[in-house]
């Protein structure tokens, strides 16, 4: 129902299969690379929606408490007309046509709408082990919960500027892979 609510607010559904290259031991010939394709499933959709919900709630709490957070946003954009999209094969091809129209996601210290998620405010917060920005969010929330001083907005803005280039580089590597 939460996903349906976001769709009514303009959220896009762009789930595609994910490809991963795995190294498999092959005995005498040595290891071989194998492509593993993971299809979207109801369980994966539920977990993804729960993560989006958590990010929306953290953003809402951050806004109400005046807590500096790395808010993620995406400007609204004009999508291709439905007739043009329906002429394309459903799935990856159609999603690619939509994705090429989307603006780049931005990270800043002020909450702003996220177009493709259909949310007024959003913060990535669910993967502090693999995303440094999520760790920053967790530390800010911890400071709030403990009544300790949190990182002020100006310092967070400087930190986000420092992180921008390495994060973009990491995304580029992922895309190339």
Report on the architecture of this protein:
- The chain is mostly helical and 177 residues long.
- Helices cover 47% and strands 11% of the residues.
- The protein is built from six helices and four strands.
- It has helices spanning 2-8, 42-65, 82-86, 92-99, 132-146, 153-176; strands at residues 18-24, 32-38, 71-73, 106-108.
- It has a two-stranded antiparallel ribbon with strand order 1-2. A two-stranded antiparallel ribbon has the order 3-4.
- A hairpin with a 7-residue loop joins β1 and β2.
- The chain is globular, with a radius of gyration of 19 Å.
- The model has no long low-confidence stretch (mean pLDDT 91).
Which short descriptors sum up this protein?
single chain; 177 residues; mainly alpha; two-stranded antiparallel sheet; two-stranded antiparallel ribbon; 6 helices; 4 strands; 47% helix; globular
């Amino acid at each position: 129902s939460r996903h349906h609510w976001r769709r009514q607010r303009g959220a896009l559904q762009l789930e595609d299969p994910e490809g991963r290259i795995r190294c498999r031991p092959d005995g005498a010939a040595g290891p071989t690379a194998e492509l593993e394709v993971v299809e979207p499933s109801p369980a994966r959709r539920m977990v993804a929606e729960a993560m989006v919900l958590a990010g929306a709630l953290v953003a809402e709490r951050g806004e109400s408490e005046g807590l500096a957070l790395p808010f993620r946003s995406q400007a609204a954009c004009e999508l291709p007309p439905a007739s043009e999209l329906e002429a394309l094969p459903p799935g990856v091809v159609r999603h690619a046509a939509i994705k090429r129209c989307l603006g780049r996601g931005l990270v800043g210290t002020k909450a702003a709408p996220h177009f493709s998620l259909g949310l007024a405010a959003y913060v990535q917060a669910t993967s502090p082990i693999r995303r440094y920005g999520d760790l920053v969010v967790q530390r800010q929330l911890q400071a709030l919960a403990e009544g300790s001083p949190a990182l002020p907005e100006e310092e967070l803005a400087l930190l986000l500027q420092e992180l921008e280039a390495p994060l973009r580089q990491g995304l580029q590597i992922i895309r190339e892979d």
